[in-house]
Amino acid sequence: MIIVMTSKATLKDRNAIVKRLEGQGYMVDISEGKERTLIGAIGANVDNKDAIMNQLTTLPYVEKVVPILKPYKLAGKEIHERTEIDLGAGVTIGGNQIVIMAGPCAVEGADKVIEIAKALKAAGVKVFRAGAYKPRTSPYSFQGYGLAGLKMLAAVREETGMRIVTEVMAPRDLKHVEKYADVVQVGTRNMHNFELLKDCGKCSKPILLKRGLAATIEEWLLAAEYIMKAGNPNVILCERGIRTFEPYTRNTLDLNAVAAVKHLSHLPVVADPSHGTGRYELVAPMAKASIAAGADGLMLEAHTNPGEAISDSQQTISIKDYRALKKQLQAVAAAVGRKL
Ligand code: PEP
Ligand code: MN
Description:
Layout: E1 2-5, H1 11-23, E2 27-32, E3 37-42, H2 49-57, E4 62-66, E5 85-88, E6 91-93, E7 99-103, H3 110-122, E8 127-129, H4 147-160, E9 163-168, H5 174-180, E10 183-186, H6 194-200, E11 207-210, H7 217-229, E12 235-239, H8 255-264, E13 269-271, H9 273-277, H10 280-292, E14 297-303, E15 317-318, H11 319-335
Parallel strand pairs: 7-8, 7-14, 8-9, 9-10, 10-11, 11-12, 12-13, 13-14, 14-15
Antiparallel strand pairs: 1-3, 1-4, 2-3, 5-6
Helix pairs in contact: 3-4, 6-7, 10-11
The structure holds phosphoenolpyruvate and manganese (II) ion.
């Protein structure tokens, strides 16, 4: 439920309600508006909800109490309109500024990641992506450097000042990824791994939650809800393409979903046209389309020598391609009132 306080309600009134709701087993989320405060109370297991709502309605400093009808109560827009997430080093996502996250598919070795990161930094990229734990279709393919790879990413942060986003695949690795990353990525294959999501809810770092390759928008938002309900409000949604009947592209980048989740949720939304298309020549047009559709950021696979990338080379753009794309993205961003 949402408790809408009157414009005259004081901090003391608010605290009294928070205390009362917490005592009744609710999780409380406060949204401070210009005119009035909204108190969101989430507690699916509270069985005398109607009585509690009626009681709260009688309080003089409560204007009204409304039920939250959407199943994703924390991720939906009922309590918050927009969320900005601070990634550190002056990078914020969800505001006016578009955030570019770029880098190779995988951490390919200490020297290689530094080389790519420096080239991207020189092109203006502030967030570096690369996987240390790689979810590969074949168990015979390169599986990533694991913990050693995380340490290579920490060296990238140290040397370049860039923020690091990298994937966690298993709950047992979360403590390591949390330690070395600035943003913890949950990949498409794990969007339904509810135990991992709950653990991410206890994580101190923002979570970039990729959409499951066969997940509906509602399932995706409910996956975000798992993380938020477990205590971590900092979730970034990432549309990375869904599996359709079309074999020409690896996936179908669902830009409907980008616009839809911007409409349904207050969380920042990133699009990944690299995995979304699986073809490097389609990355630039779909990156531009993503910004036009309202994305708050992009995740791009980029490499100093895409032809030598260990994984996903066919969808990886060069640094030169990125520089050219950036100019066009700036124009698209300006057209939709954003900055890049
Ligand atoms: C990735 O970003 O490296 C990745 C594996 O992505 P996805 O989970 O979208 O396939
Ligand atoms: Mn990849």
